[in-house]
Amino acid sequence: MRAAVVGGSGFTGGELCRLVDGHPDFELVQATSREYENKTVGHAHPNLRHLDLRFSDPADLESVDVLFAATPHGVSMQHIDAFQDAADTVVDLSADFRLPEASAYDEYYDGHDRPELLADAEYALPELNRDNLPGATLIAAGGCNATASILGLLPLFEADILSGDERVVIDVKVGSSEGGASGGKAASHAERSGVVRPYAPTGHRHEAEISEYLGIDVSFTVHAVDMIRGASATCHVFPDSPVSKGDLWGAYRGSYEDEPFVRLASGGGGVYRYPEPKAVAGSNFAEVGFELDAANKRLVVFSAIDNMMKGSAGQAVHAANIAYGLDETAGLEHTGLHPVGAP
Ligand SMILES: NC(=O)c1ccc[n+]([C@@H]2O[C@H](COP(=O)([O-])OP(=O)(O)OC[C@H]3O[C@@H](n4cnc5c(N)ncnc54)[C@H](OP(=O)(O)O)[C@@H]3O)[C@@H](O)[C@H]2O)c1
């Protein structure tokens, strides 16, 4: 199947080029960039120097089966007609089609240009809603921080440990690649190196996504930390009724034992006893774990992903695999590296 990556020179676009190149059923026929037009893909992504492909103008889209849009917020909603003319299936990595209600875009973003299309889009976080994805033609890959948070909390809802009325506080630590290749002053090495910086203490846009898909209001804070890749969510949960460790193991095993990309890491031996972005860097795995603080009627849940894999490009390919009825894990089977420096 022919595949194109619009926004191919960016961070998630580079990951998509890497994944599509290694995918047994997809062929990368186009990657776009205005800045790097006519330059090789390897010019922007040195890990892809072997690719015999040059960036092209996003105004000249090839006819493909699947188009991955790895562009900033607002671009897909503006160009969706051209994307859909060029491709049978559009998988968008931005937030443009993630929320079903236009009112949420008024509240959390700057409104929406094409609200009539929101009902046609399928949100993609396969562990949550894979049944919606077969045959989908407009797919909105779940956001990175929302994915980490939802994967951590989902089993508590599926096992009825949470109903949606409880207090949930989420703190996510994120790496610098979340900000994209264009970065900005705060992303420069001198400013970013060594930080643990409260970056979105309140009002982060992913709050809307978590609330929408888990049906719960959350208190959500994001810190920028000294990683390149990774999102690590710590969720403090205060259930109404007592919960045992056995209940928690039952809930998390029940939700995830058949999931190809979720690993439980919950207080075992060794150095990496809980979810750790370093342990999943470069892979499509999410790690999820928990601890019980019975004295304080608190659960603490941990979740770690690579924001550019499970949090974006990997999630997009996973969704496309399901949409086309392919093996879900096709092109995504590789594990990360260990040991490895700060990812
Ligand atoms: N980074 C993450 O961890 C992450 C995780 C989840 C979701 N996302 C979402 O994924 C999207 C891409 O993120 P990113 O981090 O990869 O961004 P990025 O590194 O800044 O890359 C953006 C890409 O979009 C292209 N682009 C920008 N404006 C365009 C336009 N008007 N028309 C066509 N192409 C345009 C850029 O190339 P040219 O300007 O050269 O054309 C570039 O290739 C964003 O919506 C982001 O919110 C990112």
From TrEMBL:
One protein family per Pfam: Semialdhyde_dhC_1
Gene Ontology BP, a term: L-arginine biosynthetic process via ornithine
GO cellular component, one term: cytoplasm
UniProt keyword annotations, A-Z: Amino-acid biosynthesis, Arginine biosynthesis, Cytoplasm, Lysine biosynthesis, NADP, Oxidoreductase
One Gene Ontology term of the molecular function aspect: NAD binding
Pathway the protein takes part in: Amino-acid biosynthesis; L-arginine biosynthesis; Amino-acid biosynthesis; L-lysine biosynthesis via AAA pathway; L-lysine from L-alpha-aminoadipate (Thermus route): step 3/5
Domain Semialdehyde dehydrogenase NAD-binding, chain residue ranges per copy: 2-136
Superkingdom of the source species: Archaea
Record's keyword annotation contains Cytoplasm: yes
Purpose of the protein: Involved in both the arginine and lysine biosynthetic pathways.
Family: Belongs to the NAGSA dehydrogenase family. Type 1 subfamily. LysY sub-subfamily.
Protein name: Putative [LysW]-L-2-aminoadipate/[LysW]-L-glutamate phosphate reductase
Gene: lysY
